[in-house]
């Protein structure tokens, strides 16, 4: 569902933020993209959703190339950036109506019902008629989530989705993401530097460091197959430069 082939981004000034990433995330998989600050996670996601042009390589979603067939690909993508832009002067419901217009969803009862369903699912049912300007950070995250799900994407990208959420909202988010994968076959790609999130809900985790994938597997594989034990230890060891060389061979062999 989500495919990257040799995906590379070198910024002006020479920083190679993503270096020949090749990766495939099938429908129904919850994939965690785990890496320390500056690893290149946001740059990768922006290329996968078509917001940033790769220096080389390509990305496809649902079989559509993000460069050559960008419209078709974007119709199938939901994206929640780490700092989502929302219109402060609109109410939650007005905002979702506006997003539905952008996606060309016909106005009418089914659309209003879908908006109500999403507001309910995200515990925003009582807030739909309040101005977004009055929302807390967590409520904004949820509103961004609702707007990303409205057109029923096949692939959902979330950049650091748990930042700013309280524990019960994190629990709710995890349940929602699991359901999207299991019941709707959505491929979910989330970036995080929170090991707990990756270990608990992701089917597979890619550890990303300095623009490269240094380990890939289920949380259990990454921990049990490693002499290091816990995912946290694996992560720390893999992202500590001194240990990277030796471990890349172990983990990817
Ligand atoms: N517009 C830009 N121009 C130049 N360099 C950039 C730009 N955006 C990001 N970078 C650099 O690319 C590298 C990867 O950044 P990126 O934001 O993709 O990492 P990240 O893993 O998302 O980090 P974080 O977890 O801190 O958000 C960093 O060295 C960063 O300084």
TrEMBL record:
* Cited InterPro entries: AAA+_ATPase, ABC_transporter-like_ATP-bd, ABC_Transporter_VariousFunc, P-loop_NTPase
Q: Mind telling me which SUPFAM superfamilies this protein's record contains? A: P-loop containing nucleoside triphosphate hydrolases (SSF52540)
Family matches, as SMART domains = AAA
- Tell me one GO molecular function of this protein: ATP binding
Q: What is this protein called?
A: ABC transporter
Q: Which organism is it from?
A: Capsulimonas corticalis
């Amino acid at each position: 569902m989500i495919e990257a082939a040799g995906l590379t981004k070198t910024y002006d000034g020479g920083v190679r933020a993503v270096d020949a990433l090749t990766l495939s995330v099938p429908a129904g998989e919850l994939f965690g993209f785990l890496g320390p600050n500056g690893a290149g996670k946001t740059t990768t996601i922006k290329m996968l959703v078509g917001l940033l042009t790769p220096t080389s390589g390509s990305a496809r979603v649902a079989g559509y190339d993000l460069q050559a067939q960008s419209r078709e690909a974007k119709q199938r993508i939901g994206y929640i950036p780490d700092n989502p832009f929302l219109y402060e002067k609109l109410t939650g419901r007005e905002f979702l109506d506006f997003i539905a217009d952008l996606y060309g969803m016909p106005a009418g009862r089914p659309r209003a019902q879908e908006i109500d369903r999403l507001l309910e699912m995200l515990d925003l049912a009582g807030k739909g008629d309040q101005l977004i300007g009055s929302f807390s950070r967590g409520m904004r995250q949820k509103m961004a989530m609702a707007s990303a799900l409205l057109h029923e994407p096949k692939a959902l990208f979330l950049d650091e989705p748990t930042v700013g959420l309280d524990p019960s909202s994190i629990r709710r988010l995890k349940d929602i993401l699991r359901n999207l994968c299991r019941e709707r076959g959505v491929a979910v790609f989330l970036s995080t530097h929170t090991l707990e999130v990756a270990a608990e809900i992701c089917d597979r985790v890619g550890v990303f460091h300095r623009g490269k994938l240094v380990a890939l597997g289920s949380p259990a594989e990454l921990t049990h197959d490693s002499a290091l034990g816990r995912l946290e230890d694996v992560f720390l060891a893999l992202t500590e430069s001194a240990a990277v060389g030796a471990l890349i061979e172990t983990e990817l062999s």
